């Protein structure tokens, strides 16, 4: 109230300031750029690589031309490529669901409870620094060489960015919103459901998006665990047979699948957060 009286007195003493504030135009939202702009960089790199390989500037056995990689993809499509894509996608989906479920529960607990923050957060921050490949020997000892260690490793990769997004998103909610909700007599459950979680939703969705990206990355490490199908298996097969075209084909597929899944998360984010009046839209 004291600050409001000071602001009113200031505006009364300086009417020009009030007039300038009232007549100052609102900032215009940024004009969205056309989607095709995102294709300029990869298309230019592909054309440059094609020209450099055909001119002999690059060794074709080390960096095959994009046209050769495309031919390899067509050849792999006739040899069960869809099975490899389906196997990798299923592992990513299972690991992401497992990791995201645990991260949402534990992240919400840590964000809402100071006791959980003090108890769990230091350990999670230490575990987050462990590289993905460091988990492989331990998971092999514990779970064998079947699907279980692969899914658990992917879940570990997805867990930490989602946990960070949920916990930090809840802790960073504006205290004024919480105070207003308490003044209105909201219970703890209503406060969490109607104030804290909606306010933290942007950070939660960002964590889910980052967790899905890491799930694809950890999938490659997971499929090094005695996999006979999957894109990680294709990478290993291409390396062992000195087929750079197969390696690049698998990398291209990983990039495409990662982009498609990320676009789905962006669409979900835009639909869920349609109420936001943000400065600019996220690229898709």
Could you characterize the architecture of this molecule?
The protein is 76% helix and 0% strand. By secondary structure, the protein is mostly helical. Helix 5 packs antiparallel against helix 6 (114-128), helix 7 crosses helix 8 and helix 11 packs antiparallel against helix 12. The protein has a single domain, classed as MetI-like fold. The protein contains twelve helices and no strands.
Main sheet properties:
none
Helix content: over 70%
Question: At the first level of CATH, what is the class?
Answer: Mainly Alpha
CATH superfamily: MetI-like
| Tally of DSSP helical segments | 12
Unreliable residue stretches: 1-11, 16-22
Write down the overall mean pLDDT: 83
Q: What fraction of residues sit in β-strands?
A: under 5%
> Could you say what the CATH topology is called?
MetI-like fold
Number of E-state strands: 0
Shape descriptor reads globular
Count of separate structural domains: 1
Spell out the helices and strands N to C: HHHHHHHHHHHH
* End-to-end distance: 44 Å
CATH architecture: Orthogonal Bundle
| Radius of gyration from the alpha-carbon trace, in angstroms | 25 Å
Overall SS class: mainly alpha
